Amino acid sequence: MIKVASVQFNHAPGDKESNLETIRGFCVEAARAAIQIIAFPEMCITGYWHVRNLSRESIQALSENVSNGHSVNVLKEIANQYQLIIGAGLIEESEDGKLYNSYVVVHPDGQVNCHRKIHCFISEHMSNGDSYTVFDSHLGHRIGILTCYDNNIIENVRITALEGAEILLAPHQTGGCGSKSPHGMKVIDCGLWENRNEDPKSIEDAFRGPNGRGWLMRWLPSRAHDNGLFVIFSNGVGVDDDEVRTGNAMIIDPYGRILAETWKAADEMVIANLDMKLIPTSSGRRWMRGRRPELYGQIATSTGNEIRARESRFS
């Protein structure tokens, strides 16, 4: 068994120190509960939705180098102190000056793994990652990372599973998005969030509805089921610039069953024990062994209709 936690929290845009303190607080709580892996949301250290309106210079001021940046060093110290594997999102500036929506996983022994979001759309000044991220852990199991939109593309999750991932960290900033698709997500009234203490039912109904949990249930459990892996879904919650993130932090098993979840309109942590013995005999893992790769060449061939994630998201 591996004991894991998924966190939703309402980050402070641009205030890395405040967000790191929130992360530290949850890690203290996790250590008391003997958690081994804790996952925080996409870009939760830097803030997310406001970044779409920032200049390159302003984004660069928020960014840092993963190998020696302040935030990663803080995460290293927390991971070592509390013997946790910690995942959290930030903006990375690479050695060649490119900016990435990155998610770092810091281990108690100082190991750091970093995933650059493959389908980055938040800003024209930020670049797409170009590789998958799957790595070994001291727990004896392989962990993969896919950030938000990355999980929408089924091939990404399949390749991550084929590379041996047994646990998928899936950090998001989603729910309440202003999708132009007629049956996609719609925005949630910010007033419901502001009035959450006086009327918790209305905002929680919205979080569980078609713009939050209802949307996730159309596809997220299938990513776990079809690939035979555990999914740790972390997300922002509350007002994020002009939208409301719906939280819905959850942990899903290799059969697509929800082990733990929340719909609270608050910073919250959910906890589950992962029975790793479920993976080899799960439907997804057995079906994967029956694949016919010789038939799948078309999947890796351009149709000529592909567009960038940014165009797809905002067009």
Per CATH, the architecture is 4-Layer Sandwich
Number of domains: 1
Using DSSP, what is the number of strands? 13
Would you identify the CATH H-level superfamily?
A: Carbon-nitrogen hydrolase
List the helices and strands and how they pair.
Layout lengths: L1 E8 L6 H17 L4 E3 L16 H7 L7 H13 L2 E9 L5 E8 L5 E5 L16 E4 L5 E4 L8 H9 L4 E5 L18 H5 L5 H9 L4 H4 L3 H8 L2 E11 L2 E4 L3 E3 L5 E4 L6 E7 L8 H7 L19 H6 L1
Parallel strand pairs: 1-2, 1-9, 2-3, 7-8, 8-9
Antiparallel strand pairs: 1-13, 3-4, 4-5, 6-7, 9-10, 9-11, 11-12
Helix pairs in contact: 1-3, 8-9
Mind explaining what this structure looks like?
The protein has helices at residues 16-32, 56-62, 70-82, 154-162, 190-194, 200-208, 213-216, 220-227, 283-289, 309-314; strands spanning 2-9, 37-39, 85-93, 99-106, 112-116, 133-136, 142-145, 167-171, 230-240, 243-246, 250-252, 258-261, 268-274. It is an alpha/beta fold. Strands 1, 2, 3, 4, 5, 6, 7, 8, 9, 10, 11, 12 and 13 form a 13-stranded mixed sheet that branches. The protein starts with a strand and ends with a helix.
